[in-house]
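tool_call: predict_structure(chain=1)
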Amino acid sequence: MKHITLIFLLWAGLVSAQHTMQLNKGQSSPKANLEDVSWIKGHWIGEAFGGTAEEIWSAPMGNSMMFVFRLVNNGKVSFYESGHIQQSDDSIILQLKHFDGNMKGWEEKDKTIDFKLVKLEPNKVYFEGLTMEKIDDDHMNVHVLIEENNNTEEILFAYKKVK
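tool_result:
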């Protein structure tokens, strides 16, 4: 699989997309708490990047909701993500790190990819460059703005809850 990286120009507001949003320069994240996004908890599976994508989210505890993600192509893990949505003062932030199939980190040791909260709706949460939407109790869409080979596009992860 080609190396996929998140585009860092997003935070400057230079790219627009259909399902994701950005904070305007100088704009702060709105007030929110983890209970506002507790509908994300669960075990989710779907297809993306020609393989099977899986996310497992915990319930809120200790001012965070932790998650793990893996993408499997042709029976092998292409990459993992580990992270959380964390309570940060009177708002929330999504932070993650990427790892290849052998758990070698993509980001530097003390660096994370941070997605600040832009907007919150009852069944939809907009972080910078990443939107999560509850379709119903068994379906969730996640839209992620990515860059590959200098092209920017929004990728849909259409998940179904594993029972």
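agent: The beta strands are 42-48, 51-57, 64-73, 76-88, 91-100, 113-121, 124-127, 130-136, 139-148, 151-161. Proceeding to next step.
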